[in-house]
Design a protein that fits this description.
single chain; alpha/beta; Jelly Rolls; Immunoglobulin-like; TIM Barrel; eight-stranded parallel beta barrel; globular; binds (2S,3S,4S,5R)-3,4,5-trihydroxy-6-oxo-oxane-2-carboxylic acid; hydrolase; Beta-glucuronidase; signal; hydrolase activity, hydrolyzing O-glycosyl compounds; GH
């Protein structure tokens, strides 16, 4: 495994620990931090599409370049060409194709696409204003899973990874006036994708998050970040790009509390290290104070809404702003309420989910599983006051010994961290979920943990680990204990485990409070998952699985078990809402839905919702 080299650089008298070389290589060419607040054109709306199950628009039968009559990305008016007659013909016409709403997963859009897994071409036309010496970028918030992007017939870039943004410069390809944007979206997953094709959720395909055409000046602020450190200083940096990036004076203003200036180096990088202003209110779930932060250079200004807080671990405690905190959470998939979700996280869709966590369950924390959720959700968590666990889908199976797969994982992590590092709500980066222990797997996760540490030393690292039930020698009565046997623990700040005793396996609910846990005494532990299925409305007094009573009983008993773990510092039971999963095909109970939600897919509360809400109310001190 390549060792990261950390260098210490002195700029203008400040010691700055630099991002190690390998991690630095993962920085995307353009970030456009704060793009949502920039001069831009939202390209959401009706696009046309063309299915391409055999990938004829990418390659011909021999694997060579596609036949021109198949190339969906051509900048051509096919009806006009056909009107001319002649020997040529076409086997597509994007202009006259069926329509589909972007953003959104195609699976929910049309019955014919419900189980479509492959390549689909999307197209829309739009008008651009003249750039007048400025620049333009297309920023995709997420395309699931691979994207091939063409503007006016010219390929402008590709991207792999279904949940992270990517930005492509189109200054030269863009026309003032009419433009034709075509995106090939390939939803297929394989043994080398992240995740692989084996998951417990609907993989969905499509342009699932907004696409924006962003206008910038020739020299612009590509990235700007600030962070409150444990020693009470606020550090950060601004990155300028463009012909006049070098040695610009950059100013940062935190609300009306403070301003500071710094001068960019020859590469357009300016660093800040200032004392936190007196009167700076710390962000917390109880008081999610956000400031308008403004970064300005001669030619450009970028603004953001940011909170300032510290997060740390001390012994077995998790400290938020220096004070111990218990994480009253729940896990969440990115799926809106309703019978036919399209993974379209509008602000109101996301707010409805987070509202149930914050005000229904009395929560202060959400595990955004199992991949980076939309920026809308993370920004709302900032605004509403919910701490966030963020993860990338290194889940169950991964081709652990393949360096290309590791590279993909590291790049995905980097894209997530660069996107969200200004969000006060995000306190934990997870490097994996339930991956079976082996030496190659632990090396892979170890490299991920090192990468996270290098890119963002200010947040905590965790992973959802598996637990083992085993007999221990010193246990006289030969009783079993629940333990974590995983060398990855050494790389983590917070231990986290998924435990399903009482659902999977043969334990009865009565046995749960008596289960013995053997976990390190000096490390914080959270239960990253526990849960049981119940079909909303399926009631029975007995002890039948899938009933609301069983699920509620399971929660009562699991919480009683949890109370006996002295180092327990939080939990995110599985899961807020029933979610689509093709693994779950019981025709009466499941019908393609994982039923471990405390809410049905349409938002009906099951009995267990009240059990957890009461527990969290008591934990929060009765508030
Ligand atoms: C797990 C997985 C989660 C599944 C859940 C289940 O451990 O992390 O993705 O959906 O169990 O329902 O079995």
């Amino acid at each position: 495994m390549k060792k990261f080299i950390t260098t210490l650089l002195l700029v203008a008298g400040w010691a700055i620990a630099c991002v190690p070389a390998a991690a630095r290589d993962l920085r995307p060419a353009f970030l456009l931090t704060g793009a949502v607040h920039r001069d831009s054109q939202d390209l959401s709306g009706q696009w046309t599409y063309s299915k391409d199950l055999y990938r004829t628009g990418l390659t011909d039968i021999n694997g060579w370049v596609a036949k021109s009559r198949m190339q969906r990305y051509r900048d051509i008016d096919i009806a006009a060409e056909e009107a001319k007659g002649g020997t040529g013909f076409f086997e597509f016409d994007m202009d006259r194709g069926p329509r589909i709403a972007v953003p959104g997963a195609w699976n929910a859009a049309q019955p014919e696409l419900r189980y479509y897994d492959g390549l689909i071409w999307f197209q829309r036309k739009f008008k651009s204003k003249p750039l007048n010496g400025g620049r333009a970028f297309l920023r995709f918030e997420a395309v699931n899973y691979k994207a091939y992007v063409y503007l006016n017939g010219k390929e402008i870039g590709r991207h792999e990874g279904g949940f992270t943004p990517f930005t492509l410069e189109v200054t030269d390809a863009l026309r003032a006036g009419d433009n034709r944007l075509t995106v090939g979206v390939d939803s297929t997953h394989d043994a080398q994708s992240i995740p692989t094709f084996i998951t417990d959720w609907d993989l969905y395909g499509g342009i699932t998050r907004p696409v924006r055409l962003v206008y910038t000046p020739a020299t612009f602020i590509d990235d700007a970040t600030l962070n409150l450190r444990a020693d009470g200083r606020i550090t950060g940096e601004v990155r300028l790009q463009g012909p006049r990036a070098a040695r610009q004076t950059v100013t940062v203003a935190i609300g009306t509390l403070a301003t500071a200036t710094a001068v960019a180096d020859a590469d357009g990088r300016a660093v800040f290290d200032i004392k936190a202003p007196a009167g700076l209110e710390r962000w917390s779930p109880d008081s999610p104070k956000l400031y308008d932060v403004r970064f300005s250079a001669a030619s450009d200004t970028v603004r953001d809404r940011m909170g300032f807080r510290t997060i740390a671990v001390k012994g077995s405690q998790i400290l938020l702003n220096g004070k111990p905190i218990f994480l009253r959470g729940i896990s969440l998939h990115e799926e809106e309420f309703g019978p036919n979700p399209a993974r379209n996280m509008t602000e109101s869709a996301s707010r409805a989910l987070l509202h149930e966590i914050k005000h229904g369950l009395n929560g202060n924390y959400v595990r955004l599983s199992h991949y980076p959720h939309s920026e809308v959700t993370v920004r709302l968590a900032d605004e509403m006051g919910l701490l966030v666990w963020s993860e990338i889908p290194v889940y169950w199976t991964v081709d652990w010994e393949n360096p290309d797969v590791l590279r993909k994982a590291l790049a995905m992590q980097a894209e997530t961290i660069y996107r969200d590092r200004n969000r006060a709500s995000v306190v934990m980066w997870s490097v994996g979920n339930e991956t079976p222990v082996s030496a190659p797997r632990t090396r892979f996760h170890g490299a991920m943990a090192d990468n996270v540490r290098a890119l963002d030393p200010t947040r905590l690292i965790s992973a959802a680990l598996l637990v083992e039930r085993r007999k221990v020698n010193d246990d006289v009565d030969g009783e079993e204990v629940t333990a974590i046997q995983d060398p990855l623990m050494d790389k983590l700040d917070v231990l986290a485990v998924n435990t399903y005793a009482g659902w999977y396996g043969n334990d009865t609910l009565d046995a749960l409070p008596g289960l013995k846990w053997r976990v390190p005494a000096d490390r914080p532990l959270i239960l990253s998952e526990f849960g049981a299925d119940a079909l909303a409305g399926y009631r029975d007094d007995g002890n039948k699985k899938f009933t609301e009573e069983y699920q509620a009983g399971y929660y009562r008993q699991t919480l009683a078990m949890a109370e006996k773990i002295p180092t327990l510092r939080g939990m995110s039971p599985w899961i807020l809402k029933d979610f689509r999963s093709p693994r779950r095909e019981h025709p009466v109970i499941q019908n393609g839905w994982n039923r471990k939600g405390l809410l049905s897919e349409t938002g009906v509360r099951k009995q267990a919702f009240g059990v957890l809400a009461d527990y969290y109310r008591a934990k929060a001190g009765g508030r």
